[in-house]
Design a protein that fits this description.
44% strand; Lipocalin; single chain; signal; 7% helix; 12 strands; 4-stranded antiparallel beta sheet; mainly beta
């Protein structure tokens, strides 16, 4: 299942589990704050000290042109901060889909679509490292499928096992399809891949 299609039920669960009140555009949070209109939650992870990392996307009024967002919630249900992440200028939309925490940083997986037409679009992956105290972006790293030089479209499905910390590295498990296979209607199944990135990225 493509990342761009999943998690309607997860989004509903997240909204039911976190009775937040409104936050303004600057991300100021009061206890009991609610996610702004247009924000969809793709995943939420309980980390420590009662904090939760919520990742997803904010779309326009038509539910299109997603832009990745990250919220850090505290133990009271308020937001410590939120971050709107940039996507490359030559891409169409993107969403934050997974979150892993270290004592000083959050690591967020972003999946970016290059075009609005799904049959022509590639989904590309990158990891964004954010300061856990402030939400400031510390580093960004493209995630390339190993051993593949041809054009491809990749995705990482929901679930913590597909994006996790292990022995000082981020382990990313996903699948990809070659664009040539899509163009030729070969019917080949997507190929699985695993990538490891050092958490000490800068």
């Amino acid at each position: 299942m493509k990342a761009s299609r999943y998690w309607g039920s997860l989004m509903l669960c997240a909204l039911l589990l976190f009775p937040f009140a409104n936050v303004d555009a600057a991300g100021d949070a009061a206890a009991g704050a609610k996610l702004p209109s247009g924000v969809s939650v793709y995943a939420h992870e309980t980390i420590d000290n009662g904090q939760k990392c919520l990742v997803g996307a904010k779309s326009d009024q038509d539910g299109l042109n997603e832009r990745p967002v990250v919220y850090l919630a505290d133990a009271t249900g308020g937001f410590t901060w939120h971050a709107s992440l940039k996507i490359p200028a030559d891409t169409y939309q993107g969403r934050a889909t997974h979150c892993v925490a270290s004592p000083a940083a959050l690591f967020v997986l972003v999946q970016v679509d290059t075009q609005s037409e799904q049959s022509l679009s590639q989904t590309l992956l990158k990891v964004v490292k954010l300061d856990r105290k402030t939400g400031a972006v510390l580093a960004t790293k493209d995630v390339a499928v190993p051993g593949v030089s041809a054009a491809y479209s990749a995705s990482v499905d929901e679930g913590g096992d597909n994006f996790k910390a292990e022995n000082g590295s981020l382990v990313i498990k996903g699948s990809y399809e070659l664009m040539s296979d899509r163009d030729n209607n070969t019917g080949n199944d997507p190929t699985n891949f695993t990538v490891k990135l050092p958490m000490a990225m800068n």
